[in-house]
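So, could you explain this one?
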Amino acid sequence: MSVLIATQALNCERDERLLVQQLNLSVAEGEIYQVEGPNGSGKTTLLRVLCGLSTRYSGEIFWRGQAIKAVRHQYLSELLYLGHQSGIKSVLSPRENLQWHAAVKGVQAHDAIDAALAKVGLYGYEDAPCYSLSAGQQRRVALARLFISHTPLWILDEPFTAIDKKGVAELEGWIVQHAQQGGSVLLTTHHDLNLPMTLNKVVLGG
């Protein structure tokens, strides 16, 4: 298995406080990693650094064996980040939100958008304004992004927030399927994952 993302002596800080220290991490194709730790230990900070949203770090991050500073465009095009918040525009419809996401990613996804919305249980809601949807449905709009850009690395921060029991089981299945198809997943969650494969852990201190 090829290593997709790796870190070397990675230190991350937030508000001038060092949270992640000397992290050496290697995530290969087909692997799932859960980042664990108490509140305030730096889980979200680490994910934001790894997906390029924060530059407050020292050490090195590598993508497919190359420093991300040298392959930043390729790196960002091959990862999908879903933050703790749904990150959708409430005045837009689910379809419009995904059209915007596809445009940012530079992918042609016209046919894939409606299929993705159906997959996450939003058939019939494609054109409803997102402010009229429940919190769980809005989270499903965000999750639909997983199926339109075909990125090998998923970085997910509390992806199970606001979704029901059926949705939890579905998302677990999608995560496993992504890994079985050669993708990699890095996630944080307070949910007790029930996966039929190895779940690797990154444990951060308090």
Summary: The longest strand covers residues 3-14.
